[in-house]
Amino acid sequence: MDNPKIYQSPGFGRKVKKLKKQEKKDLDKAVLQILNEPTIGQEKIGDLAGVFVHKFKISKSLFLLSYTYQENEINLLTFGSHENFYRDLKKYRKAAKD
Known about the structure:
Layout: E1 5-8, H1 10-17, H2 21-36, E2 42-43, E3 51-58, E4 61-70, E5 73-80, H3 85-97
Parallel strand pairs: 1-5
Antiparallel strand pairs: 2-3, 3-4, 4-5
């Protein structure tokens, strides 16, 4: 099986730039886990149907990473701590559809 292509949303890219070196390594590990097993995240329902959320740690803090997955394509949407994560994700999804 070919490795899926990975795309990131502009917001995801902006957040990555703010990370420290070690935090970026932790994020890269999580992205690799998703690349190796795209169904590792929990699939959401309702407003967020089709979105998967993978939980991982950045320096002992729990972070969530949202992404969509199709055949050979993984779209990284956003990541962050649990606080307001789903609210912001819904806003992003709504803006992307408009």
